[in-house]
Request: fold
Amino acid sequence: MSYFERTREAAAQDLEEQITMLSKQLAALQKAARKRGLAALEEGGSAASDAYADAWDRFQDALPALRSRAARAEAAARENPAITAALLGTALAGLAILFFSRR
Reply:
C-alpha cells in the first residue's frame, strides 16, 4: 500500500469520525432545544392559566355588584315603561343610523 493510499484512508476515517461526532453533537443540541421548547410551552400555558384564573376571580368579585345594578335597572324600567320604551327606541334608531351611514 502506498503512502497516498494510507493517507487517503486515514483522512477518510478521520472524516467519518468527525461526522459521527458532529451527528452526536447535533442530536444533543436537538434534545436540548426540545427541552427548552417544552419548558417555554409549559411556562406559557401556566401564565395563560394564571391570567384566566385572575380574570375569573375578578369577574366573581364583580358579579354581585353587576346583579344589584341589573336589578335596579329592571325595577326602574318596570316603574317607567314609557321612558324605557322611548330610550330603547332612541337607542335602536341611533344604531340603525350608524349602521346605514357606514355603507
